[in-house]
Design brief:
By secondary structure, the protein is α/β, with parallel strands linked by helices. It is built from 16 helices and 9 strands. Strand 2, helix 1 and strand 3 form a beta-alpha-beta unit.
Length: 354
């Protein structure tokens, strides 16, 4: 059986680059508790080793970086204490925080599919590399959940209200969109990974982390300039239309405006509306309410609150039903607790929101 995360040290003239590769390509590199713990342990070791100048994170296979977390294991745990879920989420969110505060350059290759938990890993890195094949999304509402892994923090740092649109609709967007939104740093050609790794190995690294962060990004940008990527926007051409949907203080009206896009003649907007219709209304309401509550919170505070929200959704929300319908039975016919935001019971919300 192969290792679920591969680690190697790529030699440089004055140290090495730590490389971590998610290695479940047959499962689109979905994260398990074991994988998350392995990443945290190795990242911590590299953080303490002066010979390690930078860290590079990627995923095995041709389809993408990481499609998210293993939510099937979480939602099918029959124990009343929900130990599998609590361990998974707490381990994952601790890794997210550690990555955001990592003391050295931390680069990530976000080519292909990069969603959910994978998107959270992307956001924790100091140089977020996306490619002309990247498909990015936070699609958790479609399984009756919420955009976690720090989503309540980093999506609120996107030009308002696009982060909320991404959270509610689960819309897929491109690497070029991500750069324009501030959710990625560099767009490169998908076949340039080897060139970037070679450039990093040829870099004359400093003993100072701040200088090395600049060197790392400069190496990536030099490769991008030599081999320009194909620039394709999916979301940004419709930004104004999506912003207009959110120009109301009422949650139901925002949701209805996004939902109405499914009747659009424009294929992209139609997909946005359909994505909204596939999500749980309870999750959409919870996300909008939660985002308001933590708007000015720190990353650590957001992650701690997300842990409570995740466990509440596991116990009282639509999370189990959403995973059943989409990933277990695959009938794509979830029976949500509520048909519309206006139907949501305040007692239910009190059980869900932290």
């Amino acid at each position: 059986m192969s290792d679920v995360v591969l680690f190697e040290e790529l030699k440089t003239s004055n140290g090495y680059i730590g490389r971590a590769t998610l290695n479940r390509p047959q499962k689109l590199n979905t994260l398990t508790t074991e994988m998350i713990a392995l990443l945290h342990r190795q990242f911590a070791a590299w953080a303490e080793d002066d010979a390690c100048k930078t860290v590079f994170l990627d995923g095995a296979g041709d389809k993408g970086f990481c499609a998210g977390g293993d939510v099937v294991a979480v939602t099918t745990d029959p124990s009343p204490e929900m130990a599998v879920g609590r361990t998974f989420f707490s381990t994952e969110y601790d890794l997210n925080y550690f990555m955001h505060t990592f003391p050295k350059p931390l680069l990530v290759w976000g080519g292909g599919i990069c969603m959910g938990g994978g998107f959270g890993l992307l956001q924790g890195c100091s140089t977020r590399i996306v490619t002309d094949t990247s498909r990015l999304a936070m699609p958790e509402c479609a399984i009756g959940f919420h955009p976690d892994v720090g989503g309540s923090w980093f999506l609120q740092r996107v030009s308002a209200p696009m982060g909320e649109v991404i959270a509610i609709t689960g819309v897929h967007f491109s690497g070029a969109d991500a750069v324009d939104l501030g959710l990625a740093d560099v767009l490169v050609a998908n076949d340039s990974k080897d060139a970037i790794l070679a450039a990093l190995q040829e870099t004359d690294w400093s003993d100072h982390a701040r200088a090395n962060k600049a060197f790392a990004e400069a190496a990536v940008r030099a490769v991008a300039a030599d081999t320009p990527p194909t620039v394709t926007h999916k979301l940004m051409p419709f930004r104004d239309r999506l912003v207009a949907c959110m120009e109301t203080p009422y949650f139901q009206e925002r949701f209805d405006n996004l939902l109405a896009l499914k009747d659009s003649d424009e294929p992209f907007l139609k997909r946005v509306g359909e994505g909204t219709s596939h999500g749980a209304p309870g999750s959409a309401f919870a996300v909008m309410s939660f985002f308001q509550r933590v708007r000015h919170a720190s990353l650590r505070e957001c992650l701690d609150a997300e842990l409570t929200l995740s466990m509440n959704m596991l116990e009282h929300g639509d999370f189990r039903e959403g995973v059943r319908a989409l990933l277990v039975d695959k009938d794509r016919n979830p029976q949500w607790a509520f048909d519309a935001i206006r139907d949501i019971d305040l007692g239910w919300i009190a059980k869900i929101l932290p």
